[in-house]
Amino acid sequence: MSVEAGSRALLAGGDVVLVRPLHPADTAEVLALHTRLTRQDTYFRFFGAPSGLDKLAAGMTVEAGPGHYAVGCYRRGELLGVANYEVLEGSTDAEVALVVDASVRTQGVATLLMEHLVSHARKTGLRRFLAEVLAENAKVIHVFKDLGLSFEAGIGGPERDVVMKLDDDPAYLEAVLERDSVADAASLAHLFKPASIAVIGAGRRPGSVGHAVLANLAASAYRGPVAVVNPHARVILGVPSVPTVAELSRTPELAVVCLPAPAAAEAVEACGRRGVRAIVIISSGLTGTEHGDRVHAAVREYGMRLVGPNCLGVVSTDPACPYDLTFLATRIRPGTIGVVTQSGGVGIALAESLDDLGLGVSTLVSTGDKYDVSGNDLLMWWTADRRTELAVLYLESFGNPRKFSLLARRLAKTRPVLAVRSGSGDTAQRAAASHTAAAATPAVTRDALFEQAGVIAVDTVAELVDVIAGLSWQLLPGGPRVAVVSNAGGAGVLAADACEREGLVMAELSDDTRARLAKVLPLEAAVRNPVDTTAAVAPGVFADALRAVLADDGVDAVIAATVPTAVGDPGTSLAEVLPPEYKTVFAVRPGQRARVAPLVPGTGVTACYDDPAAAAAVLARLVRYEQWLNRPETGEDLTPLEEPDALRAFAAGRGGWLPPADAAELLRLADIPMVETHYVEAGDSMAAAAADVGSPVVLKADADGLLHKTAGGGVLLNVHGADRILEAFRTLRSRFGAKLRGVTVQPMAEPGRELLVGVRSDPVFGPLVVFGLGGVDTDLIADHAARLAPLTGTDADLLLDGLRSSKALWGSGQLDRAAVRDLLLKVSRLAELVPELAELDLNPVRVRARDNRDSAPGCLALDVRARLEPSAAPDPFLRRLRD
Prior knowledge:
This protein is of the alpha/beta class. Helices cover about 35% and strands about 25% of the residues.
């Protein structure tokens, strides 16, 4: 459903409304709203012109056109409010008007309408909203002031002149996100804290899904009224049943539908007519059919929240309102883990694994085909739900990844967020049209999203359970320095190897620590890291050695690998050592039956793994999360562009790969340094360019189908003198024939390291900035890092340090790292300012040494390819529900 057709959104109290553009056909409806208002309500007008609402009062119609825009807010078909703007001729200012029915004046209608106006106005290039408000109309002034935009209001007199700047302001985005979270939590309360529940399609047969759902509900200690809809029974599992939704004695707040697709759609429509606020559809077979379309339409028309269809169901263990509305065979334990999964199978596997560990959940939501409630909704719910201490996500698709990034980042600052990667293969990758495209696979984009948002990503459910256990039973490590203590030398060596593979640092034990170890351990013991106590030590001696290592200030975490011997089982002593210490300790017992288990059954002392590699992998993920939590965020720190509007205007209306001259102009407008470039079309004379450009020069062919110029024979280097330039031009013309569009002529750049900087814009994820080694071997070496735009200064630094070769690249301190960092931030800014930029490839970028004393840039793009496409991406931060 397009935004122009209208978007479902939430009011502050959780009510679902429809916000859509108004057109001349809506005039009568808007006029009816106007006539219900008092004079004070309607006296809210434009500067020097009657408002659109005053025009309606005079019998005029809602105007349509590029200089006018109006939106209305509807609840179950009733118009609640209207907002519109009119652009002042020849300017980027617009006069704004707003009116809301008095009966809903405190429910957030005005703010929601204004957000939609702001979003539309920004897309059209408007810079300010202007309004004139009666001084006593304090509520309207507060609406404007609380939006989060830069706001100014005149003082004195009966009227206030209001100015709102529409610049991209982080404060506005944060304010929108906070309003969204409050409204979403209020809306989801109908799902997670329902006063009453109905199970529609609960079967009499114990083997049916509907019967299992009702049985789980009955066993979950839910205290509210429960009803059943089944035309073939009067009572099921002791619960009275009625034939239809219409015959229920009370309107349930939450309904669960377990019916075949045609009957499920009919039941959803009946629930909407009855006033049900939330629905869980277990049924499958709806998506892609007319029955699924009917469900979409009913949810939209009646303002319901929906989980599913084709899902496992929902569980909440809130003591105030516990319920299990799934067909799980495993009883869900109450706990602190929130789970949202798009796969019912993953939900079942995870529920069983958590039960084996004695861990429980706060909420479990299987979203299935995800018509409405999504992972983003759960991130907002868990942010407000203090019972949830750890969030787990299995998402096969992202509806709004940029919003996901903000929500996950906000939650991860207070609680760990885990995600299982899915769809990691590159089979869906389109043929790469540039080096940037080759590097920006779907998996790279998704991983960049997780990394920047602080999400702990794993590849399997087994790894997920490993990390959950580690987070549930131990503190986060204080750093990457790890010590290994083992009574089996082989296990200790394997653990040390695993730690180094995972990027952890093997701690250097202090002299005092080694002396303490030498006192308690046999002479043949190894007192350097990894510590081998030998197999002959008693449990108490092993415990003393572990205490000595934990007391070392140079150790952040310990992996204790033990095997039982005839002398004793050192693993039994670990529980006695751990409580007084405040460092992360993971136990390893090779050969134990479970992959991971509590060290002592029934306690949460620490996680015990069956393999050192598993413990090291978990520890490494926890270290990276701890580093993310403590990472300072720095802004872009760039000089503002002198001509941002000129840059936008240059890109507007263009499409496809830009000609080389236009691509160079795009960089110039974005203040991105590029080597001096002359372009000569194939049919023109090269004589003028040969005379204007000093020697030596490089000639680069611009030919149809020539993607990589050097490999394709399209680059001629070190051409000296006008005669040789003319000869080289003729060579390229002969080599490429009719395919040659033109030739780029550039002075030879100074020697230096060649890098790649690029952008690949995804229609869902937005622009991805790629950085890596450049030149002719870019794809062969494939040493790249990527981050989603917009980049912060911290993001740019992480890109620079994110290559396999980063230490060698920057270690000597000779290359101008600051210039490359500046370039990355400028490329990110270009991607944000020009949403039409589908692909940008700066390769090679030549980096100079830091000690060059002249004023030339520290790095230069020697070649550029840029592709523009019309951008129809919706505003990712506009408040609206999935449709």
